[in-house]
Design goal:
The structure holds 2 protein chains of 2 kinds.
Chain A: E1 3-4, E2 13-19, H1 23-31, E3 39-45, E4 52-56, E5 59-63, H2 65-68, E6 71-73
Antiparallel strand pairs in A: 1-6, 2-3, 2-6, 3-4, 4-5
Chain B: E1 8-10, E2 16-26, H1 32-40, E3 44-48, E4 55-60, E5 68-74, H2 86-97, E6 102-108, H3 112-124, E7 129-134, H4 136-142, E8 145-146, H5 148-155, E9 159-161, H6 170-177, H7 187-198, H8 204-207, H9 249-263, E10 264-265, H10 270-282, H11 288-304, H12 306-333, H13 338-356, H14 359-375, H15 377-390, H16 399-404, H17 409-415, H18 422-431, H19 441-451, E11 456-459, E12 462-465, H20 466-491, E13 502-504, H21 513-547, H22 562-570, H23 582-590, H24 596-605, H25 608-614, H26 617-629, H27 634-644, H28 647-674
Parallel strand pairs in B: 2-5, 2-6, 6-7, 7-9
Antiparallel strand pairs in B: 1-2, 3-4, 4-5, 8-10, 11-12
The chains are: A alpha+beta, B alpha/beta.
């Protein structure tokens, strides 16, 4: 089974492969730099385990776990 | 580049002034607001973009020579100019329809790759643009090396390195005014560059840095005019990238990476590391929420506790005693008629004073709110609370506005501005008044004190004061109604496409005191002007209808005044709720102006004996539930109108809240009757 960003442990990195989902949201993520081949690291989790703080291209973006599970990584 | 002599306008003194329109654009958290403030200082106007609830800031630069007027429009902070969200559409339309003379794209140099995405999109639009490379102070600290020349060349636009925060403090401003040599963070250079790019003479010598005889035969690819364009002439050797509007994000980032690899040698991103460490504590699984609650508790304690209320008392005394005292003296000296004295003292000063008196607390709340925003902590608060809000269809960003509602609805509603999704923002603004604000507290204290203080009930062998339970119950009820309303609204009329949660967690930055205070002042002055004019008018109206009766004679007994008559007429409406007497009704009506007025009116209209006779614990409870939920005070309404930018939604809020209040109080009363209480 392919791994997604939601499977990362804190401090762990992966390389973005593809993002599935509703096209507008996917486009947003792509525009924010979540393109194929880009390293992404799980920086932190909120106290409830959700949302996640992802480090990508020198900044940190918070997205929900449900969205992170659509970002496939290598 | 075209020098548009058509834009020279004649001022009143017949001078020829070149007016140039500049648009400021960039990512959120790139320092755009600080830059805008640096460029315009106090010469700003704040409004709304037409038809939407997004703030529009315009201003002009006071540092240019008199013949040059730079009018600057601050476009909303966006990550992309693809016109999807409201903010993106606003920015896109402004660029395409208003065609500013120059676009200044502010870029965060510590986060260059993502920031350059917007830059490349703008490049593809073929508009006049320069880049303000901001936060260079951190770049230096990190040990990054940026080849600004090369960057300029590859982007095909002039890049000016700046640090908008440096030299933005008040001391530096004063030194600059006295022409003392002081670090200005590159703003002077930026201003000069803007002028250079927009106000060139038509002759090529002054236009091009690399002027030569062949210059004017080389057409700039951006312009079809005969004026030449610097820096892109020797195209064969230039490494300028090409961007088209049909490129995918993947392709764009490919170009960006090419640029950054060539122009930047990265040091160590110290701020990212430091923020990570701080967040380990502040977003900690176990400590994160308690720390947040502690901080909010402190904020409320300072704003509404003895510190804030000390200021309130000063204003209350001034507006309620000192000033009316003087007015009385002046008016009697001038032999002014009785009604005029009453108008000023009992009408204007009383009404305006009631609202101004909670101004210190609002200011304190605003200060804390702005500090939390400017440091980046606000994003963390939304981050840790998001899970709870997701369940209701909102996001963590709604948390801060609602929390502030426990203090005062006015700054709470203004805080909702940070919500990008318009539906979320509307819902949040509509439910925030259900968070019992501090002005309602005296109402509960009065009723609980009179009807519940001495009562105790036994639960499981423990004796509990009912007063405490009732108080807590009221607050909890407010929260429950807010939650249910959110669910209801989100499922029906404010159904959104549920834009999935995306929020940047910016690195922690220490804001400069002066810019923070400036932000606060802007928010507060806006509130004072808006609410002030509405409240001023309403105070006069209320004064009038409670002083006069329908034959326009002054009344002795307020029961016969216009307000009293209206109260008598409306009172039956409240019969089913248990408090269908005219005094209670009138108190509720005055609560429209300010919730503090409810207690004030009760104290005027009832004697203590009357009060205890006309209410019972059950009807007291019903009354409190009604005051908790019914329409918000004037100041709040004025602010909501400003933020929602439509009468339709204000009307809706009014009707919705009052209906909910009525139903809730009805249920409470009837249920109590069923249980056998009176």
């Amino acid at each position: 089974m392919k791994r997604t960003v939601a499977d990362l442990k804190i401090g762990e990195s992966g390389i973005i492969d593809e993002i599935l989902g509703e096209s507008e949201y996917v486009n947003r993520l792509l525009e924010m730099g979540f393109t194929k081949g880009t390293p992404v690291k799980l920086n932190k989790k909120a106290p409830f385990g959700d949302p996640l703080g992802l480090q990508v291209r020198d900044y940190v973006l918070a997205i929900r776990k449900s969205s992170a599970s659509h970002i496939y990584i290598k | 580049m075209v020098c548009e002599d058509e834009k020279m306008i004649k001022t009143k003194t017949n001078e020829n002034v070149k007016r140039r329109e500049i648009a400021l654009i960039g990512n959120p958290n790139a320092g755009k607001t600080t830059l805008f403030n640096r460029l315009t200082e106090s010469h700003q106007r704040v409004g709304n973009w037409p038809g939407v609830t997004v703030e529009k800031k315009t201003g002009y630069c006071p540092f240019t020579q008199k013949e040059i007027k730079l009018e600057i429009t601050d476009l909303p902070g966006i990550y992309s100019i693809e016109p999807r969200s409201v903010e993106e559409k606003i920015a896109y339309n402004h660029l395409v329809n208003e065609t500013p003379d120059l676009v200044v794209n502010i870029v965060d140099a510590t986060n260059l790759e993502r920031n350059l995405y917007l830059t490349l999109q703008l490049k593809a639009l073929n508009i006049p643009i320069i880049v303000a490379l901001n936060i260079m102070d951190e770049v230096e600290k990190n040990g990054d090396k940026i080849d600004v020349q090369k960057l300029s060349e590859m982007l095909g636009m002039k890049v000016v390195p700046i640090s908008a925060a440096t030299g933005s403090d008040y001391l530096s401003k004063i030194k600059r005014r006295f022409k003392k040599d002081v670090e200005d963070g590159g703003i002077g250079d930026l201003t000069n560059e803007i002028i250079k790019e927009t106000c060139n003479e038509s002759s090529c010598e002054n236009c091009c840095e690399n002027y030569n005889e062949n210059c004017c035969e080389n057409y700039s690819k951006n312009s079809s005019e005969s004026c030449c364009c610097p820096a892109t002439e020797i195209k064969n050797e230039s490494e300028e990238i090409t961007v088209t509007t049909d490129m995918t994000p993947h392709e764009m980032y490919g170009l960006i990476e090419k640029v950054t690899k060539r122009c930047i040698i990265k040091g160590e991103n110290k701020n990212l590391k430091r923020s990570y460490k701080i967040d380990k504590l502040l977003t900690n699984k176990w400590l994160g929420i308690p720390i947040f609650l502690l901080i909010m508790f402190l904020v409320f304690q300072i704003s509404f506790g003895s510190f804030g209320s000390a200021f309130t008392e000063i204003i209350e005394t001034f507006m309620g005693e000192t000033l009316p005292g003087y007015v009385e003296i002046w008016f009697s000296k001038a032999n002014a008629p009785e009604w005029m004295l009453s108008l000023v003292n009992d009408g204007i000063l009383a009404g305006v004073g009631a609202v101004l008196s909670f101004l210190p607390q609002i200011v304190l709340l605003f200060i804390f709110l702005t500090i939390m925003e400017d440091t980046g902590y606000m994003a963390r608060a939304a981050f840790i609370m998001d899970r709870l809000f997701e369940a209701v269809g909102l996001s963590g960003k709604s948390f801060i506005p609602m929390l502030m509602g426990f203090g005062c609805t006015v700054p709470a509603v203004m805080a909702a501005r940070t919500l990008e999704d318009e539906n979320d923002r509307k819902v949040t603004i509509i439910i925030t008044p259900f968070m019992s604000c501090s002005a309602k507290l005296p109402i509960y204290v009065l009723f609980v004190g009179a009807f519940f203080a001495s009562q105790k009930i036994d639960i499981l062998g423990y004796t509990i004061q009912t007063g405490g339970i009732v108080m807590t119950g009221i607050y909890v009820l407010g929260v429950i109604v807010a939650i249910l309303s959110a669910l209801l609204l989100k499922k029906t009329i404010l159904k959104g496409e549920n834009t999935p949660f995306i929020m940047e967690l910016p690195p922690y930055r220490i804001p400069k005191l002066t810019s923070t205070l400036m932000h606060v002042w802007k928010k507060v002055s806006g509130f004072i002007i808006r609410a002030g004019t509405v409240i001023f008018a309403m105070s006069i109206l209320i004064w009038f209808i409670q002083t006069y009766d329908f034959s326009l004679t002054i009344v002795e007994d307020s029961a016969t005044s216009i307000l009293g008559t209206i109260g008598h007429a409306i009172a039956p409406v409240f019969e089913p709720l248990g408090f269908g007497n005219w005094r209670a009704t009138v108190s509720l009506l005055t609560g429209f102006v300010a919730k503090e007025a409810v207690v004030a009116t009760i104290e005027i209209l009832y004697t203590p004996a009357d009060f205890e006779a006309m209410f019972t614990p059950l009807t007291a409870l019903s009354f409190m539930v009604f005051t908790l939920l019914y329409l918000p005070c004037l100041a709040s309404l004025a602010t909501m109108k400003q933020e929602l930018n439509s009468w339709k939604w204000i009307l809706f809020s009014l009707v919705y809240q009052t209906s909910v209040a009525y139903i809730a109080a009805f249920l409470v009363y009837r249920f109590g009757l069923l249980l056998g209480y009176t």
